[in-house]
Design goal:
two-stranded antiparallel ribbon, 2 domains, 3% strand
């Protein structure tokens, strides 16, 4: 067995058994490759025998290269999973990963944009696009993020056969978990408008959103279009496509949505992931108070 064989099996496990996103598969695969190369490992038994001490030394070497706390924590999580998988492949009775605590990470609050800025971004990407159909495409994608709370990967996974969209749509999110999201008329109309002007043949099983050369649209193109739009609008760098999903959640919570309903709409596995938006809403209210209250401005 070679290092390539180990990595291929790990990739397949992540993509097929765990149904991880392509981004996660790439990142976890790279982490495993660095471990195999650094320790010169090429058998499942070798990987299974990696101790907490050896893993700590490997991560210390990575930290010396300038790895941040957040990146180090992700790398540790990836390698624990890889070693646990290796122990299962090697036939070990216990498949627990080495016990090793990762660096502490200070969690920042999501940075939502205002409702006007969210809609303004969608309109501006359309205005700045190189072609009419590309503008309609980018506007439709951003409205799916803000109007339905989709992750960008979820929006880009839509098939041509999904159009026309109804008032509700079943989204397959992380880990293959499905949820039903309501779609506002403005969102459905934006998607229909794009489909009507798209110059490429839209077969039912093909990707709905296409790149400039006709292939499936990538996240990078949407992020670049959003970056141009936010620069034109004078918005901060935090106004990203993913911030529109945060804005969807924050604005719904501010309008009276309960946490359980919001959890279902966002597709969060635990309520704890959703509760962060209560802090965001409180922080937003405090910022508004400070900027608007006469005593604060004097």
């Amino acid at each position: 067995m070679t290092k390539h064989d180990l990595l291929e099996a790990w990739h397949n496990h992540l993509a097929l058994a765990q149904r991880r996103s392509p981004h996660t598969v790439r990142a976890y695969g790279k982490a495993a490759e660095r471990l195999l190369t650094g320790m010169k490992l090429s058998r499942w038994d070798d990987v299974a025998d990696v101790t907490a001490t050896r893993l700590r030394t490997h991560l210390a070497s990575r930290r010396s290269d300038g790895l941040s706390n957040a990146s180090a924590a992700r790398e540790l999580s990836a390698l624990k999973g890889f070693i646990g998988f290796a122990r299962a492949q090697a036939g070990h009775e216990k498949t627990d990963a080495p016990r090793l605590r990762g660096p502490r990470i200070k969690k920042g609050l999501p940075r939502p944009v205002t409702p006007d800025d969210a809609l303004g971004l969608a309109d501006t990407v359309e205005e700045l696009a190189a072609a009419e159909w590309i503008g309609a495409r980018d506007r439709a994608v951003l409205l799916l993020l803000y109007g339905a709370g989709m992750r960008i990967a979820e929006a880009l996974s839509l098939k041509s056969g999904d159009v026309p969209l109804g008032e509700r749509f079943t989204v397959t999110g992380k880990g293959g978990k499905q949820r039903v999201v309501p779609l506002l008329p403005v969102v459905r109309e934006a998607v229909a408008q794009y489909a009507a002007v798209c110059p490429w043949t839209l077969s039912a099983d093909d990707a709905l959103f296409r790149g400039a050369k006709g292939g499936p649209l990538g996240q990078g193109a949407v992020q670049k279009a959003t970056a141009r739009a936010r620069k034109a609008m004078g918005l901060p760098d935090t106004a990203t496509p993913h911030a529109l999903r945060h804005s969807f959640a924050t604005h719904l919570l501010g309008a009276g949505a309960d946490l359980r309903s919001l959890q279902e709409l966002l597709g969060h596995a635990s309520l704890g992931s959703t509760q962060i938006y209560t802090k965001v809403d409180a922080a937003t209210l405090l910022d508004t108070y400070r900027s608007a209250h006469p005593r604060e401005r004097s």
